[in-house]
# Entry
Amino acid sequence: MVIEMKKIIHNNDNLSENDITETVTRIKALLINNEDIMIGYSDNVYHFPGGHLEEGEEFKKCLKREIMEECGIEIKEDDIKEPIMYATQLCRDYPDKGKNRKSEIYYYVINTDKKPNMKKTNLTEQEIKGNFEIRTIPLKNSIEELKRNIPNNKRNESIAPDMIEAIKEYFRLTKENKKIVKSKEWNWEKVKGKQEEYWKEPSIESFYLINRWKKDNKKDFLDLGCGLGRHTILFAKNGFNTKAFDLSENAIKRAKEYAQKENVDVEFKLGDMLNLPYDNESLDCILCRNVISHTNTEGMRQIVKELYRVLRNNGEVYLTLGSKETWGFKQTDWPLVDPNTRVRMDEGPEKGIPHFYADYDLIQDLFKSFNIENIYQLEDFYKNENEELSSSKHYHVLIKK
# Structure
């Protein structure tokens, strides 16, 4: 499932884009706190927090400003994702004869744990005259409340229907986001030559983990998402009872050949990390570097459950997750699957694979059933084939059951 913005067009006057003489843009927010939605109310009219986009103003900055002015709530720009709905109305001879206006509204969803603080608001004179307030309404009752209020003001007939559609779209997306996207393996057949050499070189932290887990007398090790076996071989050579797992048949085949060449004993298994083929509490330590983020948010929650299930008490997992500060999450031409996940679309072995991105608070929530031993964020710098410098940011997380 990929999020595609719902579009509604009202054009009773059959105007074309060439007929339009002016365009007015508004930005609105479905401001949600847990099971409630906060909606503005004045002159017997409901409207979502938000307002006009000022000349030269960015969408997110506009929404942040409007929510502070109307609700007294400070929102971080990073909490504002892409709009879920766009509605436009094309009107002939409006606001004056000879003028044709296009009014467009972008609807965003913002989740917050904050409540309205009217002491911090900066209301307009019109809002003050209309006894403006922010009403907190249970989400499950919000559509019925908007319908109930329509007869109270003629303006509701044009405003409420699109608000109702935006809430319905939010419910639809929330339901879809609870589905797990189908797992898709890396295309390891594209990894050859220098790239293959790179993916056989163990990561720096793997040497630290060997020392740490040896000191703790941990024996049963899983290389989750083993790829070509760079960590598999390293841990096997250092005396661990090593298991290796991947979704790619090509990767497993080549990793087996690598293990035979290095004369180490490894148990290889092909499968999906959403359903690990290991017994409960059968592993002491797991390494999953740049692996478990190849899913969406609900898939990530399922993987976390699986990690907990197969790990023994006091067992540890070292994992990495893409950061929301990295370039990939900012690629708006990559399809958005849910608020934390994009499908990578650049050419290479990861094309078409979902990538989950995290921040500190999301990591705390995901791994709340574990003890989080350490979290840090690293920025890796590298040069591409054209010697151009690039970088990516990942969270490195050590958790203990």
